[in-house]
Design goal:
By secondary structure, the protein is mainly alpha-helical. It folds into 2 domains: about 325 residues, no CATH class; about 55 residues, no CATH class. About 60% of the residues lie in helices and about 5% in strands. It contains 16 helices and 4 strands. The longest helix is centred in the N-terminal third of the chain and has 33 residues. This is NADH-quinone oxidoreductase subunit H.
Length: about 450
């Protein structure tokens, strides 16, 4: 990697020097990115799930149905806003706002690109950065639960309250796994700054393979594969997305914490979910997928990581992760609540702790922090983790035959149809024929006419 490309990495010293209008422009851009990504994310999800389920999806409003989300937003805006009589009016009003603000605020420390020149000012494509930026991301994710819990409590109804309680337990459980998976990133990068973590994933380290010098894979999704897998699973649980959408399980809780909301307040809750999905995809890209850095085939071009091109690579990675969110929703069934909590506390948490202990022990060995040795440990550990998560817990039992199923039914259960498919006559018709038989004999008519 050439020094000109490495010089594009921003540092903490590059922040805080921009004029006020440039800072305001970055804030507006981050906010517009969150809202626009949400509008397109709803359309994208409906189109992808429609394709998976062999149906068209939205295709009438605008080209390819692109304006369907805008039409749905206008529809919700003009619906009647119903306020429950038993609701706490102040908390009921501000709960959706808390969820949206926390989701959008996290985008302020996400790097969208390297250093660029805007109107003669050399500035990073990032609103701001601090030495503990990742802790700010975790704080925004943790504060988002207040909007859901308060919305469920302030509605003054049973089902929203149960949805809020489920959400609080769910988010607290999976925040632990999420925080522990980021510990491995801190240990490897040596910083909590988001721009520093992106720079650490592309420091130009070279590997010697068969006498050839090639760039070493620097993405932490490869070096820290177990942490990446656990972090992404935790983000799905943190954003209440299927198959972890227990707080709003419509088959059990009508609509969960949003049951009593309507009009724009309901739209804000839906907006917060999709903004959180896009935000966590951006955070995952920053921490594990090299941020705005181009993937390997594109890095052959020396200008791939300079100028405005890195924004394209960043948006491409975010869209790919959003597709995975949609893919999970379209393919996996919802878990039971006890299975979901057991998976977080008894599976993800112990594996995360063991992986951090192993990584700490290996890094204490002299000269162990080279990329080649980390790859030799991280990839097998990630494959072992995937095999552990998806390995069947019990041996499948052979399927019983039809006769065994019939014999195992208790006495008095609903009978099966005859095996020869000769359906017996209806009991009602048999009863009617028996009642009319004496009359038929007296008149000389045939009972088969019935």
């Amino acid at each position: 990697m050439s020094p000109s490309i490495l010089a594009q990495d921003p540092t903490l010293a590059d922040f805080g020097r921009d004029p006020w209008w440039l800072v305001l422009g970055k804030i507006v851009f981050a906010f517009a990115f969150g809202l626009l990504a949400t509008l397109l994310g709803v359309w994208f999800e409906r189109r992808v799930v429609g394709y998976m389920q062999v149906r068209p999806g939205p295709n009438q409003v605008g080209p390819f149905g692109l304006l369907q989300t805008l039409a749905d937003g206008l529809k919700m805006a003009f619906k009647e806003d119903i306020l429950p009589k038993a609701a706490d009016k102040v908390v009921y009003f501000f709960a959706p706002t808390i969820s949206v603000i926390c989701a959008v605020t996290a985008l302020s420390v996400v790097p969208f690109g390297p250093m660029v020149s805007i109107a003669g000012h050399h500035t990073p494509l990032q609103v701001t950065d601090v030495p503990v930026a990742v802790l700010l991301l975790l704080a925004c994710s943790s504060m988002g639960v207040y909007g859901i819990v308060l919305g469920g409590w302030a509605s003054g109804s049973t089902y929203p309250l149960l949805g809020g309680l489920r959400s609080s337990a769910q988010m607290i459980s999976y925040e632990v796994a999420m925080g522990l998976s980021i510990v491995a990133v801190f240990m490897t990068a040596g910083t909590m700054s988001t721009s520093g973590i992106v720079a650490a994933q592309g420091d130009g380290t070279q590997l010697t393979i068969l006498g050839q010098q090639i760039p070493a894979p620097g993405w932490y999704a490869i070096l820290l594969l177990p942490s990446f897998i656990i972090f992404f699973i935790a983000t799905v649980g943190e954003t209440n997305r299927a198959p972890f959408d227990l707080p709003e399980a419509e088959s059990e809780l009508v609509a969960g914490f949003m049951t009593e909301y309507s009009s724009l307040k309901f739209a804000l809750f839906m907006l917060s979910e999709y903004v959180a999905m896009v935000t966590m995809s951006a955070v995952t890209t920053t921490l594990f997928l090299g941020g705005w850095r181009a993937p390997w085939p594109i890095t052959i071009w020396e200008g791939a990581n300079s100028g405005w091109w890195p924004m394209l690579w960043f948006f491409g990675k975010v869209i790919a992760l959003v597709f995975v969110f949609v893919w999970l929703r379209g393919t996996l069934p919802r878990l039971r609540y006890d299975q979901f909590m057991r998976f977080g506390w008894k599976v993800l948490l112990p594996i995360n702790l063991v992986w951090i202990l192993v990584l700490s022990g290996l890094r204490s060995i002299e000269d162990w922090d080279t990329r080649g040795k980390m790859i030799a440990v991280g990839i097998p550990a990630g494959i072992l983790l995937i095999a552990t998560l998806f390995w069947p817990s019990r041996r499948p039992q052979p399927k019983p035959t039809t006769q065994e199923q019939v014999d195992s039914r208790p006495y008095g259960s609903f009978p099966l149809p005859p095996m020869d498919l000769q359906v017996p006559p209806s009991p009602r018709i048999t009863r009617v024929v028996a009642e009319r038989e004496p009359a038929n004999i007296a008149t000389g008519s045939d009972s088969r006419e019935v």
